[in-house]
Amino acid sequence: MLDLNNIRLDSCEKNALINALYDIEEEVYVTGSRTVRGKNGGDVDLLIFSKQNALNLSKKISRRFFMVCEEKIDVLVFDKDNLSIEQKSFINTLKLVRIK
Predict the structure, then answer these.
(1) Is the pLDDT of residue 84 over 80?
(2) pLDDT single digits (tens) 23-78
(3) H or E segment to which residue 75 belongs
(4) 3 domain-assigned
């Protein structure tokens, strides 16, 4: 079940995320400007921890999202058990809001 209450999305974007993530069982986080209520605009940034092929999963989710809502979405997929030093450093700079 998705928890979309703590992020800034309109109804089209919420429906698109529901569609894009319906069979995704991994941890999913929203990051970036969508985690800040007072901001405007911005693309939807997702971070997913998964052992699946990162490129394939990212393309699948992006394609499903765009079928419902023509908003820009960025999807990063990292293997939580195999993070590089650079990936760990990058994640530490993000404000993450878990949605799944």
Answers:
(1) yes
(2) 999 999 999 989 988 777 789 999 999 999 999 999 999 999 999 999 999 999 99
(3) strand 73-78
(4) no
Both tokens of residue 44? 């939807």
CA–CA gap between residue 73 and residue 34 (Å, rounded) = 11
* pLDDT value at residue 21: 97
One-letter amino acid at 18 equals: I
Length of the chain counted residue by residue:
100
Q: What residue numbers bound the domain in which 35 lies?
A: 11-98
Domain count, the chain: 1
pTM of the model: 0.92
Contact assessment for residue 9 and residue 36, using Cβ atoms and an 8 Å cutoff: no
Q: Which amino acid is at 12?
A: C
Domain assignment present for 75: yes
Closest CA to 44 of 16, 67, 19: 16
